[in-house]
Amino acid sequence: MSPSRSPPWVPWLSSHLPLIDILHHHRLLSIIRERITRLSTHPYLHFEPYELLWQPNNVTQPVQVHGELYTSEAFIKAHSKLQDSPPELGCDLPRIVLGLMFSSDGTQLTSLSTATLWPVYLTIGNKSKDQRSNLPVRHSSMLPTWKR
């Protein structure tokens, strides 16, 4: 797409936003491959989702506990849908759902300017919150910002 033209679905875009020439980023597949094949983190990854229920006594109905991505209803449904789908021809590898969690926060580049940067972090949701908080996050990209 030419920088002077805006995408057809957003005709007013080119007149309102400045052009960003370079977006510094890492390839998602390289980050994912590194994270799931690392021997130190692999034992902590949950590739099979499960439903976590709590029942305080025998009289009440069990209640689903919400706490981890891999125990959520959406994750369980996505896993079931993937397992029920036809496999790729000639491939007998296990099929898993990998939860990618993106986050960001602004950081000021210098104390004397208004230049900021928004690093985008990627974590794998198939790890427990305890494990995710103890491991360093991986920068996946840097989003520059500017003030008019």
**SSE arrangement, N to C:** HHEEHEEEHE
Q: Which structural class do the helices and strands define?
A: alpha+beta
Shape category: extended
Radius of gyration, whole Å: 21 Å
Name the features.
alpha+beta, single chain, 19% strand, 148 residues, two-stranded antiparallel sheet
Question: Quick gist of this model?
Answer:
With 148 residues, this protein is an alpha+beta fold.
Describe it for me?
With 148 residues, the protein is of the alpha+beta class. The protein has one domain. It is 22% helix and 19% strand. It has 4 helices and 6 strands; from the N terminus they run H-H-E-E-H-E-E-E-H-E. Strands 3, 4, 5 and 6 form a 4-stranded antiparallel beta sheet that branches. It has a two-stranded antiparallel sheet with strand order 1-2. A hairpin with a 7-residue loop joins strand 4 and strand 5. The protein starts with 12 loop residues before the first helix and ends with a strand. The N terminus is likely disordered.
